[in-house]
Amino acid sequence: MGAAGTHLAQLASEGGLGAIPWNLLVWAVPGAVAGALVGTRLQGKVSEQAARRFFAGLFLLIGVTFLMAFTVFAGRFA
């Protein structure tokens, strides 16, 4: 919270309220809160190995998606 607040204050002081990425905050804040709530409920109920496999697959999927986005589909984002 401290780092996020400091970063937002710095953005606002340097570029005004228009410099703050509100479109990102609209999704990030509720996602972080929901993730924290779900994570505390599942703690100890899901085996460590299952959690490791899930997150390994998730990060692999994210990595492949970024790799494809910046190589194969790079022309669409230019």
UniProtKB/TrEMBL annotation:
Lineage: superkingdom: Bacteria
Subcellular location: Cell membrane; Membrane
TM annotation in the entry: 20-42, 54-75
Key words of the record: Cell membrane, Membrane, Transmembrane, Transmembrane helix
Alphabetized InterPro entries for the sequence: TM_pro_TauE-like (IPR002781)
Protein family according to the UniProt entry: Belongs to the 4-toluene sulfonate uptake permease (TSUP) (TC 2.A.102) family.
Name of protein: Probable membrane transporter protein
Species, as recorded: Streptomyces dysideae
Organism ancestry: Bacteria, Bacillati, Actinomycetota, Actinomycetes, Kitasatosporales
